[in-house]
Structures
1.
Amino acid sequence: MSEPVVSPPADSAAPETSKLARLGRSAAYAIVLALLALFVAPGPVSRALGTFIVISALLLGWEVYIALGQATGGALPLTDFPWKMPHWQAIAEQLLQPARRNGPELLVAILAKAGWVTWREAIVGFLAGSLLGFALGTLFAHSQLLERSLLPYAVASQTVPILALAPMIVSALGAGWVPVAVISAYLTFFPVTVNTLRGLLSPEPMALDLMRSYAAPRWAVLWKLRVPAALPYIFTALKVSATGSVVGAIVGELPSSRSDGLAAAILRASGNYASEPEKLWAAIVMASLVGILFFAAIALLERGVMRSRPADES
């Protein structure tokens, strides 16, 4: 009798390898489309299509990373257990599900309300820190004595961990939104100070001599020459500080016992990370969106202000 033919065992990694190959081909197509968007399409279309391609590439890279981790048996970080790094489709679906089982509100609505609360605290700190930074930069630009004596302390203030300062600020000012705004301002003022100082000192010496030859007072030199020349530097600092203020607000909400901000949402989601990791990732996505939208708002403001400048000031 002939021996029965034993079929070889199925390769369990074959589906993952096939999926990885498909994702790789899609990534190649995305790169080609990105190149076409950058070099072929008109300006506005190129920017919009480029943004879409970048977001698509990031989401695709997310899935490629998960597939690589599964194909290598969880050798990559966050891929040894499926719940550590869920698929982005699962995160998007979780946003459109009720926050609690059979609850009335969707998770995205709750996170949007928490993001609004955090953004209000961040913008108060952003405005206060920006005004303080501009004032300090102006003083340092007009007085080398103040610059040499106070600027080192401003630099030293940024070396202290904000997690160490936050509880002390909350203890001094009490619970509520005020200490959160102060912590946000703390992370905002330093970039504005440094860039304002750099920008106010950027005009050419010949332009300063010309203003002095007309006996222009200091305030006229400041507002008619120094500030217009410093605007690109200041807006660069404001864009950096916009995202920093959101981070400061989230950090400040932790010791201040704020229950309606993004920090509380992140803490609640982290407690159930093993069972519902999508909720934590959804909260992180919402916090990122708040910072991105704040950055975009400052960028739009910069575009409007810079376009309104006279041609000889550009």
2.
Amino acid sequence: MSWYAYCLTEHQTLSNGVRARRPFVLDGIQGVNSAPVMSYPSGEFAVIVSEYDRTTSKLDEKSVLEHARVVSQSFRTATVLPFRFGTIFDTEDAIRQAVRSNRRTFCESVERLRGKSEMRIKLTVREGSARGNMNEEIVLPDTVGREYLSNLRENASRARERQTRARAVSFQMHRLFLPLDEEVSCRLTENGKMVLDIAHLIERKHVERYQNKFASTSALMRECQMQISGPWPPYHFVHRLTRGAHLPHQPAAPVPVPAAIPTTAPEPLAAMA
């Protein structure tokens, strides 16, 4: 029997200070394929897991939400280091070895993220707030020639302008919210709109203040459409801290899953400006 892993947390937060030596079931939580969720103690840490049979079980879109729900419920009462979706340990020894091998990294990560939450902002630059059609790529002709080179230069110019615009907006958001840390990515949608996905790490006790700041900021930045969600477990920041960790091979999932997994529990605040 294998073990499906959701996250790692401090052992004392789950056992009321009692030093448990064997796995125990966490009441009121169901994991992937509706399996019971257990705390597997290993030193000062506990790995939140479910029993998993590779021969009969499968991971699908529903499993993504089940995984995220377990992480979110654990996050309500403790600092968590989420594992990526699809992390499976084949034996109990593999769990213990993973914790022992990465103990220092896990200790540093838990210490850094204790009392922290992740807030996310999706910011779409409205059409007309930048020069011309900078978000549209010009289709290159099939043959190389003067028109091809001209269009190539124009596309490069538009790409530079998008990057400049994205950096300016990102810097403005950083100055307004002053997060402890941040992760920012920029992308173009199929209809040519520029979207910034921003993850901010903040003190958990300051979530309400952050939400109030968002409300006032969204009213001022009329050139952008903004959405907020959170608080979330610190998905973006824990994977950056633990990317060198020696974890078990993660089988390919049947659906594409980002590092920061969306969830419906707990329900995040969502707003649109």
3.
Amino acid sequence: MPLYLFKNPNKDEYVEVHQGMKDDHSFVDDNGAEWERVWTAPQASMGMNSSPDSESQFIDKTKGWSLGDSWDYSKELGEKRKDKRGHDNVGETYENKRQAAIDAKKPSNKKTKKG
């Protein structure tokens, strides 16, 4: 059942009330005062549940974005992953692969032929 928000007409007090969509959206308190309905933006997010771990959702969402905007969004998702798990697993995996590629190109890591 959806939540509806009402404001006390006499003071700055609000209450959330569960009501059916077809119900009369009104609220009267124990003292007989009819509270005013407060209109808010809908909270529905059908089909908009995005996962900070989904590579395909990231690609779909950032198509046509500038590189800078994509990087900013990537950073935002990394912060969400960090808040959720305590670390950014996707960022760490990428950084480890990137560092391994750099290390592989270092002269000190290349095998030399003895002859």
